[in-house]
């Protein structure tokens, strides 16, 4: 049954107010020092409907960095740049059940090749596949793609978050050198990480993320312009990864409790979508123990139950 958007518009502010208490159970990420300044009790959401209608509530104007949400879009860009075969020679298609920055299975199970493009190891390899003459050129292409999807040119790099991560990313550096040693990463480590840190530091609003989600919900076509931004086949690949790996090692539980494609980031953002209908952008910086926005997940669960969104 299609979502009753006018009912949702009417009821959304009360749900956001009710879900805000869940921010108290989470904590803001601090391993990227700049993210520690985020307002812990913030919660905002925008839903963008295929018809062009949208609704926002709470702190939806807050700007936040995409972080891991960017991995969905660099995957799409890499698929368009290199083709499916070249991409999946380098990264797998399976969930890990481990934390997002884990090294464990790189050595233990499938030597060298990251399990999927939404964990850090896989995303770093994907960043190396983006076409461009220099890291700056690659980063600008990623930003341009995000702006096209958001239908808005105001998305930009947050230089403070970029520098903060670049200065402290010992774990991602370790992953990248390990990948390089295994010859999964063909490019140089530092220029590849530069592209990766920049994509993570793209700053957006809930409305922009909701619109990006709507393009995915519409199989790659921007409903506002009719323009195809990526092929349907790649939309399907991206949405499948969002369902199986998008919420890290909480993806199974999220599939049961909410049941829609979603991708979270450590700044507290969530990109989600109802196929064929809606794009959703959420921000709430307090994270649960799996690194997902705690109030954001509660809010999505409530909405999914209310409007019967689960795909399953
Ligand atoms: N930039 C972050 C990192 O690499 C992204 C991770 C995330 O959002 N989970 O650690």
UniProtKB/TrEMBL annotation:
Catalytic activity entry: L-glutamine + H2O = L-glutamate + NH4(+)
SUPFAM superfamilies hit by this protein: beta-lactamase/transpeptidase-like (SSF56601)
Stated family: Belongs to the glutaminase family.
NCBIfam families: Gln_ase
Record keywords, A-Z: Acetylation, Hydrolase
Protein name as it appears in the record: Glutaminase
UniProt organism field: Paenibacillus hodogayensis
InterPro entries: Beta-lactam/transpept-like, Glutaminase
Protein residues bound to substrate: 68, 120, 165, 172, 196, 248, 266
Any one Gene Ontology molecular-function term assigned to this protein's record: glutaminase activity
EC number(s) on file: 3.5.1.2
Keyword Calcium: no
Coiled-coil annotated spans: none
Keyword Membrane (UniProt): no
Subunit structure as annotated in this protein's UniProt entry: Homotetramer.
Gene3D superfamilies hit by this protein: DD-peptidase/beta-lactamase superfamily
